[in-house]
Amino acid sequence: MPSSLTKTPKLLLGIVLAVLAFMVWGCYMLDISLMELIESFPSFIGFFVTNFFPPDFSKLAEFIPSILDTFFFAIVATYISATFATLFGLMMSEMVNPFKPLRLVFRGIASFFRNIPVMIWASLLVYAFGVGELVGLIALVLATIGFLSRSYADSVNELDRNNLEALKATGASPLQILWHGTLVLFKPACINWTLYCFELNVRSSSILGMVGAGGVGVLIQTNIKLMRYHTAMGIIIIVILMVLGSEVLTNKIRERIR
To answer: pLDDT at residue 7 above 70?
Structure first.
C-alpha cells in the first residue's frame, strides 16, 4: 500500500483534533461553557416551539407593503451596485487597466466598502440620517458594490489573454478589444455573480429593519418586542418563502444562460 494512503487517515485525524482544540480554546477565551450550552439548548427549543408556533397569518394584508419593500430593496440595490461595480471591476482588473496606481485606488475603495458589513453601514447611516427606507437602500448599495467589484475584477482577470492578443494582431481598436475581448466573455460570470448578490440582498434587506433601515425587519423586531411571537413567526415564514423563491428564480435564470 502506498505510504501516502496510510498517511491520509492520520492527517485527517490531526486536522480534526486541531480544529477541536481551537474550538475548546476559543470557548475558554470567550468564557463559554459547552456543557451549559448543551443543557440550555432543549429549553430554548421548547420556548421557541411553545411561543412561536403556530404562526399567525391573520394580518398578512398589513405585511404585504413591507414585504414588497424588502424585495424591491434587493432589486434596486443590486441594479445600482452592479452598474457601479462594473466600472470598479474593470478599473481594478489588470486585463483592462494597465495603470497600477489607479488599480490600487479602486481596489482600496472597493475593499473599504466590502469590509464593512451591511448592518454596520445601516447602523451608521441611521445614526447620521435617521430611520427610513432610503438608508437601507444606501447601506445595501455600498456593501454590494464592494463585493461585486472584487468578484467582477477577479472574473475579468481569469479570462484568456490570448483573445486580447489576437484582437490586437488584427488591428482592432481599443473599444473593440474591450468589447469583444473582455465584456462579451465576461458576461456569463457577471450575470452569475449579480444573481448571487441579488439572493444575498434579499436576505440582508429582510434584517435591515432591525436597525431601523426599513423593510420587513421592522415588523419582526416590533412584534417580538411586543411579545406577539406568533405574528412574528408568520412574518419570518413569509421571509423564508421569499428567500427561497428568489433562489429558485435565480437558478432558473442561470439555467437559461448556460
So the answer is: no
How does DSSP classify residue 93? -
Mind listing the pLDDT tens digit for each residue in 104-141? 888 888 888 888 888 888 888 877 777 667 777 888 88
Identity at 12, one-letter amino acid code: L
Q: Is residue 224 within 8 Å of 207, Cβ to Cβ?
A: no
Q: What is the pLDDT of residue 92?
A: 86
Cβ atoms of 180 and 172 within 8 Å: the answer is yes
Using CA atoms, how far apart are residues 136 and 119, in angstroms rounded to an integer?
9
Question: What's the Cα-to-Cα distance from 244 to each of 26, 199, 229, 231, 249, rounded to whole Å?
Answer: 34, 9, 22, 20, 9
Look at residues 145, 136, 161 and name the one whose alpha carbon lies nearest to residue 216. Answer: 136
Give yes or no for a contact between 66 and 219, defined as CB atoms under 8 angstroms apart.
yes
Answer whether 27's CB lies under 8 Å from 34's CB. Answer: yes
List, for residues 30-61, the tens digit of each pLDDT value. 777 767 777 777 887 887 788 778 888 877 77
CA distance 76 to 132: 16
- What's the gap between Cα 127 and its chain centre? 23
